[in-house]
Design goal:
This protein is an alpha+beta fold and about 140 residues long. Helices cover about 50% and strands about 15% of the residues. The protein has a domain at about 50-125. It contains three helices and three strands, in the order αααβββ. A three-stranded antiparallel sheet has the order 1-2-3. The protein is rod-shaped, with a radius of gyration of 33 Å.
């Protein structure tokens, strides 16, 4: 029986170069299409974290307000203002109405703005309980 000539195994240099070039083109295509998304992928996460933090701060302010307005018939807005106007962080902005009245009914009012990053929440608090027979406030 004649001896069979063995064929060399593996890739030739030309085949390896072609594979590297094709892989380079595919890599460039993926970076071109996905590069922007990869660079900005943290933005939605950061926005969600900022929103959660701002909402938590706002809930603290509103809970303090609700507790005070339901237990006191006057001075609630002053108590909220005094507690949060000198907060160590600059995320809470409190604004008393210039004339301390809201609309023509003469209710005292306080605007609360909570800002964290690019996210902001605001609410308007009023001294709506002026005597013990007024309905309690609930949120």
């Amino acid at each position: 029986m004649p001896a069979r000539k063995k064929r060399p195994q593996g890739f030739t240099l030309v085949e390896v170069i072609v594979i590297i070039i094709v892989a380079g083109f595919l890599g460039a295509l993926v970076v071109n299409l996905m590069g922007t998304q990869l660079l900005r992928s943290a933005t939605p996460v950061t926005s969600a974290q900022d929103a959660a933090q701002a909402e938590g701060i706002m809930e603290q302010v509103v809970a303090y307000y609700s507790d005070n307005v339901n237990n006191n018939t006057s001075g609630t807005l002053t108590a909220v203002y005094n507690k949060y106007h000198s907060a160590t962080n600059a995320t809470i902005t409190l604004t008393r109405n210039a004339t301390n009245t809201f609309d023509s009914d003469g209710l005292d009012s306080l605007t609360v703005l909570v800002t964290v990053g690019d996210v902001a929440f605001s609410t308007l608090l009023t001294q709506q309980r002026t005597n013990a027979t007024d309905d309690k406030v609930s949120f």
